[in-house]
Automatic annotation (TrEMBL):
Entry superkingdom: Bacteria
Family of this protein: Belongs to the glycosyltransferase 20 family.
The protein's name in its UniProt record: Trehalose-6-phosphate synthase
Part of the intact protein present: 253 to 742 of 747
One example GO MF annotation: alpha,alpha-trehalose-phosphate synthase (UDP-forming) activity
UniProt-listed GO biological process terms: trehalose biosynthetic process
Keyword annotations from UniProtKB, A to Z: Membrane, Transmembrane, Transmembrane helix
Amino acid sequence: HDLLDNELPDTEVFVVSNREPYIHNHADGRIVVQRPASGLVSALEPVMRACGGTWVAHGSGTADRDTVDAEDHVQVPPGSPAYRLRRVWMTDEEQEGYYYGLANEGLWPLCHIAYVRPIFRESDWQQYVAINQRFADAVVREATRPDPVIMVQDYHFALLPRMIREQLPKATILTFWHIPWPNAEAFGICPWKEEIIEGLLGSTVLGFHTRSHCNNFFDTVDRYMESRIDREQASVTLGGHETMVRPYPISIEWPPAAMEGQASVPDCRATVIAHYGLPDDIRIGIGIERFDYTKGILDRLHAMDDLLTRYPEWLGKLVFIQVVAPTRTKLASYATLQDDAIRLTEEINQRHGSETYKPILLVIRHHEPDEVYQLFRAADVCVVSSLHDGMNLVAKEFVASRDDEGGVLVLSRFAGASSELGEALIINPYDIHGMSDAMHRALSMPEAERRERMHLMRTHVRERNVYRWAGQILLDASRLRKRQKVADFE
Ligand code: G6P
């Protein structure tokens, strides 16, 4: 907030994302507010609470329309308003093409190397273009000044930066790509690669989580576009417009709001043990995420199977609670994953379990942030086994939840978080033996080592929190705005 006041005084700030931070749904004759499971929302929401401004997003709840004023706005968070949410509406058919189709059957598997084939349909592309234009028009209509700061989020809006730039040439457009950017060869199969790159290069700053994603982007531009790339200055110039391309590793708020009112670690453990009817001395493993094929959930279940086979001392002594939030369930790839996970869990539980012991508890439902933190605090080990992940904020949330410096994090080397959280036990999720060895090591780790590792990771996440992430992007934006002012004198 201070940074905005000092560096970008009197600026209008917008965030644009597909997913809204508060979803209003009808339930039992009431309106219930849901906080979606989305790394993007977990990161951006605290920033907006601190800075104020307008968040433009798709209104996806059954009661969203009931909560807005005539201008489609609602003040959020409910009960303690800090910023405005501007909903954009779309029909089911538009959502099919833009969100399920192009964004999630096309770009999502294209950018995540998880060996799921991307699907590109011309009709999806048409909807994607139309919805990007609708969001661009909504932002332009909301803007009361010619030079707002607009933070465009993620792969749903690759075309938005250019579309906004055409109408608001003086806008500072800060685009953040929350998922990986693949190598040029892999990206090259996209039939609309030029349009997507051109769209993104309407930005003032384009951010990725890691330097290697930035390098992949430079290589992609180099391969497919006529442009000027300055790797030293980390910029690309296309059609006379220059875009800075930089890594900004995203993070979480510190301290997290969900830590407020949490019981002590032993009490959280006792609550979870009572809830699932587990013995008092049980060791607990935890995995929490959306039910997404990029998260390596089946691989993790296989590792549990392998652990109980090769280290039978854990039989009856360890339970793995796998919490999964249903997501994008209309898509075949997601529905299949859910079926496979249920079947595999039953198989493993039959193989290693008994009347009274189920080694894996598969819990399929949405959990609110305070429930997630309670589970983290109850766990001995948290496993994040993404096959490919931009950052993965679950890893950072687990670390943030452990103010007792307890718990061990097992983390995939293919998640962006692994380049920051080197004190986790780093694994290759494709190597099942390696993963189960790491789980065994985590469960057997001496307390001093556990504390030291957790302490170092907590220090890192506390310092590199999400305010710092946003601050870094806004500082770069402010520098570029000042530079532009000087250039305008010439
Ligand atoms: C990832 C994406 C976000 C998205 C989230 C949840 O983190 O980068 O943009 O919001 O998944 O997915 P969903 O499709 O439910 O919004």
